[in-house]
Design brief:
By secondary structure, the protein is α/β, with parallel strands linked by helices. The chain has helices spanning 10-18, 36-41, 53-58, 72-80, 93-106, 110-132, 154-162, 187-192, 208-212, 221-224, 233-236, 241-259, and strands spanning 5-7, 25-29, 44-46, 63-67, 85-88, 139-143, 145-146, 149-150, 166-167, 196-199, 228-230. It has 2 domains: 5-89, Rossmann fold; 136-259, Nitrogenase molybdenum iron protein domain (Rossmann fold). The chain contains 12 helices and 11 strands. Strand 1, helix 1 and strand 2 form a beta-alpha-beta unit.
């Protein structure tokens, strides 16, 4: 059984806390904010594409959890040091749920993993049911980065659709690399005429005024109606429980406000 786990990204940290198995965690990412107490309780040993290998080795982990090809070099360094590493690569809602179940099984707590995944699925079912009652579906442009413009990350596209919207760049959903999700021509956003603009600039503060000031964008319906919002990175850009709870709830709150002809409820 794994009893000394280092989590190189936030979503596995949050998942272990939700399963009440956080006692196993001996190191976390410096970008971790969920749950807030993790930053106080656990040593920070990594960023996203870099890690303090010597510090991790000092913690004597029996398992290190990573995410995606972006942490492949970290994983390789640790494997060469004899550390067992599991790198997840969840990109869709279904894959996030599978990650939760797999992590539960890895630590010998399959039942806890299944319980948490089922709770998340039930929450998403409630979101879907509410969306079905909407009188109309807005076109939503989600901006993950501003220079260059990046959109269409798969789980966000799926959550937008689940919450009652239509993603403006659904063709990007199968592209795992950000470089394959670049909106080459900013005028294409204008042509697709989103009713809502959501921004989450990967840790940088979203600046609506910068978006509004882009040449040719003043006539976009989302801008003329004032439906332009930030969704905080920790609740939407980590492919874990946060996106399936607070993230999709925030998206639905915005969509419901638009559908009612007003603004989102506070």
């Amino acid at each position: 059984m794994y009893e000394r786990i280092v989590c190189l990204t936030e979503e596995t940290t949050e998942t272990l806390y939700l399963m009440e198995e956080d006692w196993r965690i001996v190191g976390i990412s410096g970008f971790t904010v969920r749950p807030p107490r993790a930053r106080k309780e656990k040593p920070k040993v990594s960023a996203f594409t870099s890690a303090k290998i010597d510090r991790i080795l000092d913690l004597k982990p029996d398992l290190v959890l990573g995410f995606s090809d972006l942490q492949a070099d970290i994983a390789a360094d640790l494997v060469r040091q004899g550390i067992e590493v599991h790198v997840f690569n969840q990109r869709s809602v279904d894959e996030i749920l599978r990650m939760v179940r797999t992590l539960g099984a890895l630590i010998g707590c399959s039942e806890k993993g299944e319980t948490l995944a089922t709770e998340l699925e039930d929450g998403l079912a409630t979101v879907r049911s509410k969306a079905e009652a909407l009188p109309r579906r807005p076109k939503v442009y989600f901006e993950e980065w501003n220079d260059p413009l990046i959109s269409g990350i798969q789980w966000v596209t799926e959550l937008v659709e689940l919450a009652g919207g239509e993603d403006c760049f659904p063709e990007f959903r199968e592209a795992s690399l950000a470089t394959d999700r670049i909106v080459e021509d900013p005028d294409e956003v204008v042509r697709r005429a989103p009713d809502i603009i959501l921004g989450s600039w990967c840790g940088r503060k979203f600046r609506p005024e910068k978006v509004i000031a882009r040449p040719g964008w003043a006539g976009i319906p989302a801008i003329t109606s004032g439906h332009i919002y930030e969704v905080k990175s920790p609740i939407i850009l980590q492919p874990g429980p946060a996106a399936l709870t607070d993230g999709v709830t925030e998206i639905q709150r915005v969509i419901e406000g638009w559908a009612s002809g007003g603004r989102p409820a506070a």
